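Quick one, tokens below:
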């Protein structure tokens, strides 16, 4: 898995440096209904090829593929990887930070690999994180060993200890919405606060996907000392029914998330 991070992150960073017209709209939509851009396709192919070449994976779930990808028998390993290869790609043309989100599980069934192997709750994650492509390129990694670590493409390492969030609860809230989950959650991780994408009339089951968006981010936030919930249960406790399942998500600093839940409970009772 180390080779994937070593080689794919610089490649994606260099691809982003090309003129924006080179990676514009591809003229199609993916399985979840999002408009696909050329860089989405490039990123998806790159990440899948790197994962297969690692000889560590047996099943790959991607936002861009309708069905789970079963790795060839001669290249199989014991891990299942769920990926959003290029989160926030609708912002490419306006130069907003985008990224790659991933969650890694162990295969628990002795049977032949299938898409069902990916239908595990987030509590089963062995590692998760994201690569952020912005003013700098950063890999954020959380593991079952505890804690969250950030690695710059230039060799610098910053450790985030559990509970190390901004705690000035007397300050008024300010709205910040970048439109790229990687960038929005990273800001929340670094500065504290709350990230909200609840269900609404347009998306009654939520907008974001559980396996390759919500679960990895919830894992990172919880390992950093925060809370991630749907409003009714912890995100990591959900048992998926479909690889592209959507859920509401609220995550961030404990005090902020608890305050949100209290407000929702108060007004739901009316």
């Amino acid at each position: 898995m180390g080779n994937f991070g070593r080689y794919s992150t610089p490649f994606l960073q260099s691809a982003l440096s090309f003129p924006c017209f080179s990676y514009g709209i591809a003229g199609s939509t993916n399985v979840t209904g999002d408009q696909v851009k050329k860089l989405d396709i490039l990123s998806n192919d790159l990440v899948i090829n790197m994962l297969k070449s690692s000889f560590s994976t047996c099943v790959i779930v991607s936002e861009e593929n309708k069905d789970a990808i079963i790795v060839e028998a001669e290249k199989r390993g014991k891990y299942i990887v769920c990926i959003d290869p290029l989160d926030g790609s609708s912002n490419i043309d306006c130069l907003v930070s985008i990224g790659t989100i991933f969650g890694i599980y162990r295969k628990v069934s002795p049977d032949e690999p299938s898409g069902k192997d990916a239908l595990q709750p987030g509590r089963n994650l062995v590692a998760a994180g994201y690569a952020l492509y912005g003013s700098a390129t950063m890999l954020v990694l959380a593991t079952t060993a505890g804690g969250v670590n950030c690695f710059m493409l230039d060799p610098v390492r910053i450790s985030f200890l559990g509970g190390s969030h901004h705690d000035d609860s007397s300050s008024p809230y300010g709205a910040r919405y970048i439109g790229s989950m990687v960038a929005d959650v990273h800001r929340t991780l670094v500065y504290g606060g709350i990230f909200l994408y609840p269900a609404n009339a347009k998306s009654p089951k939520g907008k974001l996907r559980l396996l390759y968006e919500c679960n990895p981010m919830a894992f990172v936030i919880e390992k950093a000392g925060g809370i991630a919930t749907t409003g009714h249960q912890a995100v990591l406790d959900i048992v998926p029914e479909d690889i592209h399942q959507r859920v509401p998500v609220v995550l961030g600093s404990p005090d902020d998330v608890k305050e949100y839940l209290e407000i929702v409970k108060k007004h739901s009772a009316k």
